[in-house]
Write a sequence for this structure.
C-alpha cells in the first residue's frame, strides 16, 4: 500500500461536527494558550504574551493592530498568539533532518508539515547538482551572499523579499542593510500579492 501524504493524513483526521455556539471569548483564549504553551512552554509563553503589543514590548507580526495610546492588557487576537508561538517555538531542525530528507521529498510535503518540523538552527545551501541541503558556517553563508551581490552589474538586479509576517523591527533592520547596497527593491508579501 502506498504511503499517505501528509495532506491526506490531515484530511483523514478531519471530523464534521456541529458548529460551536461561540468562537470567541473563553474558547478563543483556551485555543490561543494551547498553541502558545504547547510551542513555547508556560514561562516563555506567558512572558511573550505579556509583551505582545505593549509599549516597550514587541509588535504582533500578524497585524500590528493596537492603538499606541490606549493599549489593554490583552492587546492581541487568537491569530496573533498563534503567530507569536510559531515564531518562538522550541522545536528546531538541524543538519540531521536535512541529511535524511532530500529536496525532492521536502517539495512533496505541505507547508503545514514543513512548519511543524521547527526552526532552522544554522545556514544551509543546496549546492549545484546536490539533492540535499547542507549546513555551512555563517562566515561561508555571508561570503556567498556578498559574492553574489558584488557580482551584479547594478544593485537593482537584486530583490530583497520579506515575509508578510516579518515584524516591523526586523523589516527596519533589513532596510538598514539593503539601502546602503544601493537599491530600494524591498517588496514584502503584501506587495507581491497585490501586484
Amino acid at each position: 500500500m502506498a504511503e499517505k501524504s501528509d495532506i491526506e493524513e490531515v484530511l483523514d483526521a478531519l471530523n464534521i461536527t456541529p458548529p460551536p455556539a461561540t468562537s470567541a471569548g473563553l474558547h478563543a483564549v483556551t485555543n490561543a494558550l494551547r498553541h502558545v504553551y504547547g510551542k513555547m512552554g508556560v514561562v516563555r509563553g506567558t512572558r511573550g504574551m505579556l509583551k505582545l503589543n505593549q509599549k516597550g514590548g514587541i509588535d504582533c507580526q500578524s497585524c500590528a493592530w493596537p492603538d499606541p495610546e490606549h493599549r489593554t492588557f490583552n492587546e492581541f487576537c487568537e491569530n496573533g498568539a498563534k503567530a507569536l508561538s510559531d515564531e518562538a517555538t522550541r522545536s528546531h531542525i538541524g543538519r540531521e533532518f536535512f541529511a535524511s530528507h532530500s529536496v525532492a521529498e521536502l517539495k512533496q510535503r505541505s507547508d503545514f508539515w514543513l512548519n511543524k518540523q521547527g526552526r532552522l538552527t544554522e545556514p544551509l545551501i543546496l549546492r549545484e547538482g546536490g539533492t540535499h541541503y547542507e549546513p555551512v558556517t555563517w562566515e561561508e553563508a555571508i561570503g556567498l551572499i556578498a559574492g553574489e551581490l558584488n557580482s551584479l552589474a547594478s544593485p537593482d538586479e537584486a530583490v530583497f523579499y520579506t515575509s508578510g509576517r516579518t515584524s516591523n523591527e526586523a523589516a527596519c533592520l533589513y532596510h538598514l542593510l539593503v539601502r546602503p547596497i544601493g537599491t530600494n527593491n524591498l517588496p514584502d508579501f503584501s506587495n507581491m500579492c497585490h501586484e
Summary: Residues 145 and 151 are 10 Å apart (CA to CA). Residues 153-195 form one domain. The mean pLDDT is 84.
